[in-house]
Specification:
Blueprint lengths: L1 E8 L3 H12 L4 E4 L23 H12 L5 E4 L3 E7 L4 E6 L4 E9 L4 E3 L5 H4 L4 E2 L2 H4 L8 E4 L3 H11 L6 E4 L7 H9 L3 E3 L3 E7 L2 E7 L4 E3 L2 E4 L2 E3 L4 H4 L23 E3 L2 H4 L5 H23 L1
Parallel strand pairs: 1-2, 1-6, 2-3, 6-17, 8-15, 9-10, 9-15, 10-11
Antiparallel strand pairs: 4-5, 5-6, 7-16, 12-13, 13-14
Protein name: NAD(P)/FAD-dependent oxidoreductase
Pfam families: Pyr_redox_2
Subunit structure: Homodimer.
């Protein structure tokens, strides 16, 4: 069985950054990638210096090519299905869907998160004309007639306030949920329309939103918009290790990627179970990797 200093699970910006940092530190590591990065449906990624507007797959391909320059980095295109720790040896064991097994002194979890949408039709438009992050895609939709799809008052007011800087033509859709009187009053004062009827259908062509059809019979023209998904971790690895989680579902760390379980590190969206930018996730990966390297150094010195 192959033994590594550290196994990095996940090849998004956090995992790739961590792998690069550990490879440059001459650590014998493995990174596992199954191609389920959350941004794979997006046409372009924004906000990463020198790479603004790059296609997500191109960003990943460049990073993977850079990793191949370091002989101590092994890349596996496999899905990790099981992770265990031997409490006697403090070694970690990873099993993949290919029925292969690997062993490491440290584990770095960077598997990210996935979205669950308030209505299934969103998937047809997500990453093309419907998005969740104004910082990532607001510029491309500036000054357009936009929809804000949010099912509770807190999300609706937060996202609408934020979007006002990109477009003043906003309409809020709650998909059958009522807003608080306070939030409704705010929207009325800003002359922002609110539709609380259930959304029957999203209409458009090739991922380009054109109209929103309500069960009330009304159809409203919109050329794009933003939606509030529910985010979740696609696996229970952190929970299986009994990493401590706070009341908001955030995995508790020391601020540098170390969880409450010795040898288990975390980086990127996996930690917060919420969305993050490419740049922040990559920075998280760097910090977690330096923690892994320092701990290995101190243990072996």
């Amino acid at each position: 069985m192959d033994k590594f200093d550290c196994i990095v699970i996940g090849a998004g910006p956090a995992g790739l950054s961590a792998a690069l940092t550990l490879g440059r530190a001459r650590r014998n590591i493995a990174i596992f990638d199954n191609g389920t990065n959350r941004n794979r449906v997006t046409q372009a990624s924004h906000g990463f210096l020198t790479r603004d507007g790059i296609k997500p797959q191109e960003f990943k391909d460049i990073a993977m090519k850079e990793l191949q320059s370091y002989p101590s980095i092994s890349i596996f295109h496999e899905t990790v299905i099981e992770v265990d720790k031997d409490n006697q040896t403090d070694l970690f064991f990873v099993k993949t869907s290919n029925n292969a097994s690997y062993m490491a002194e440290k584990i770095l979890l960077a598997t990210g998160i996935q979205e669950e949408f308030p209505l299934s039709q969103v998937k047809q438009y997500y990453g093309k004309s419907l998005f969740n992050c104004p910082y990532c895609d607001g510029w491309e939709l500036r000054d357009q007639p936009l929809a804000v799809i949010a099912e509770n008052s807190e999300h609706a007011i937060h996202l609408t306030k934020l979007l006002m800087n990109w477009s003043k033509d906003l309409i809020v859709f709650t998909n059958g949920h009522e807003l608080s009187d306070q939030v409704r009053n705010v929207f009325e004062s800003k002359k922002i329309k609110v539709y609380t009827s259930i959304i029957k259908n999203l209409l458009g062509d090739h991922g380009k939103l054109e109209r929103i059809e309500l069960e009330s019979g009304e159809t409203i023209s919109r050329s794009g918009g933003f939606v509030v998904p529910r985010f979740y971790r696609p696996n229970q690895f952190a929970e299986q290790f009994n990493c401590q989680v706070d009341e908001n579902g955030i995995i508790i760390t020391d601020g540098n990627g170390r969880t409450t379980v010795p040898g288990v590190y975390i980086a990127g969206e996996t930690e917060k179970a919420g969305p993050s930018s490419l740049m922040i996730a990559a920075a998280d990966g760097f910090k977690a990797a330096t923690s892994v390297n320092m701990d290995l150094t101190l243990e072996r010195f």
